[in-house]
Design brief:
Blueprint (H helix, E strand, L loop, with lengths): L1 E3 L5 E3 L9 H9 L7 E5 L5 H9 L4 E6 L2 H13 L6 E5 L5 H4 L5 E6 L14 H7 L6 H11 E11 L4 H10 L2 E12 L4 E10 L6 E2 L3 E4 L7 H7 L2
Parallel strand pairs: 3-4, 3-6, 4-5, 6-7, 8-10, 8-11
Antiparallel strand pairs: 1-2, 7-9, 8-9
Helix pairs in contact: 1-2, 1-8, 6-7
Length: about 230
């Protein structure tokens, strides 16, 4: 099955690889890209974030890393179907071994839609989603260390995370030398609990966190809000 993304980009999805989600759409919308950004997507799955960012700007280059060989193969197919071979690549590897995969300070932006749930958590989805959303293969500390290794000074790490684990995330970011600078809460409806949080951290940044207006996806009648339409480019 194929999904249509931004800027004429299409994406093949497959069983066994985590699918396109609102989390990824919201994160891609949240990410700030300047000219000729060098982006690394940690845990790239089928290439969703990389494809979205290539559709967002036509001058960025994206390298994806994923532990699942099937995910990297799917990313390669998505790169080819969109003619992005000159701008996008995917590596099969463990982000915990990032120093053997990619050079230090080689990227201006790192993005990730990372594992949310502790290994063995009852809330972690089953099968392929469990592998993508549980921390059995990767902790938040692993993720932040990998991002810090990859980023040049002043580079940005943007990710989506669960609100109940925000303290753990901020501790891991600061421990890796990444200072939280921007944050946006996401709710399904106004007044409903926060579902996820979008965070941007700066490599070598000074303390000072800016809260952005909340992203509310749906009105009480179930229709999409203007913010929801914006992240989906409707």
């Amino acid at each position: 099955m194929a999904e249509t993304l931004w800027g004429g980009i299409t994406m093949e999805t497959a069983a066994g690889v985590f699918p396109l989600t609102t989390d990824s759409m919201a994160l891609a919308h949240f990410v700030r890209l300047g000219r000729r950004e060098r982006v690394c997507d940690l845990g790239c799955g089928g290439g969703t974030l990389g494809l979205l960012l290539c559709g967002k700007r036509d001058d960025c280059a994206v390298t994806g890393v994923d532990l699942q060989k099937t995910a990297v193969e799917l990313t390669d197919r998505n790169i080819a179907r969109n003619g992005l071979q000159e701008r996008m690549t995917a590596l099969h590897g463990d982000l915990r071994d990032i120093r053997t995969l990619l050079p230090a300070n080689g990227f201006t932006t790192v993005v990730s839609n990372p594992p949310y749930f502790p290994a063995g958590s009852r809330t972690a989805p089953e099968a392929a989603k469990a592998a993508a959303r549980s921390q059995g293969h990767c902790t938040v500390e692993d993720l932040c260390r990998a991002a810090a290794w990859l980023l040049s000074t002043g580079g940005r790490f943007s990710l989506v995370y669960r609100p109940e684990a925000l303290c753990d995330l901020f501790c891991a970011l600061r421990g890796a030398g990444l200072e939280p600078k921007r944050m946006r809460l996401v709710r399904h409806r106004s007044g409903s609990p926060v579902s996820v949080v979008l965070v941007e951290a700066l490599s070598g940044g000074r303390p000072g966190l800016r809260w952005e207006p909340e992203l509310v996806l749906y009105r009480d009648d179930g229709s999409p809000t203007a913010d929801c339409a914006a992240i989906y480019h409707l």
